[in-house]
Amino acid sequence: MRTTQCILTNLHTFSNKEVRGEVHVFKIDKDAEEYISQGDANLDGAVYGLYAAEDIKHPNGKSEDVHKKDDLVAQGVIKDGKVDFTNLYLGNYYVKRNFAGRRIPAG
């Protein structure tokens, strides 16, 4: 009697992909509680900075910090009531208005 032996091999490729984060800032009118300006005010045009709230480490754990605490990481301008900061290393951040928007004269 003859016996046949089968050996099955599965080949898989695995890879780790860096996870990145996003921060979305929405500027709203304090009284209206939405993106509506009052009078001659304009909510667009303000410049916001995104800062590292802590030392932010590289995901590989071996490289130097990518951002030191209080470093300006990115800057953006409010348009249509928002600004988005994307492709961020994971960590804690804070947002601060760096420059006010422009005021549009009435009339």
Summarize this entry quickly.
The protein is mostly beta strands. 0% of the residues lie in helices and 30% in strands. The protein has a three-stranded antiparallel beta sheet with strand order 3-2-5, with no helix packed on it. The protein has a two-stranded antiparallel sheet with strand order 1-4.
Structure overview:
- The protein is mainly β and 107 residues long.
- It is 0% helix and 30% strand.
- The chain has no helices and five strands.
- A three-stranded antiparallel beta sheet has the order 3-2-5, with no helix packed on it. A two-stranded antiparallel ribbon has the order 1-4.
- The chain is elongated and about 95 Å long.
- The mean pLDDT is 83.
Structural class: mainly beta
Count of discrete alpha- or pi-helical segments spanning 4 or more residues: 0
The residue fraction in helices comes out at under 10%
Q: Count the strands?
A: 5
Rg calculated over all Cα atoms: 25 Å
Give the end-to-end Cα distance, rounded to a whole number of Å: 102 Å
Could you give a short account of the major beta sheet? 3 strands, antiparallel
Order of adjacent strands in the largest pleated sheet: 3-2-5
N-to-C order of helices and strands: EEEEE
Tell the overall outline.
elongated
Mean pLDDT: 83
Tell me the fraction of residues in β-strands, as a range. 25-35%
Runs with pLDDT <50, length 5+? none
Q: What are the salient characteristics of this protein?
A:
107 residues; mainly beta; 30% strand; elongated; single chain; three-stranded antiparallel β-sheet; 5 strands
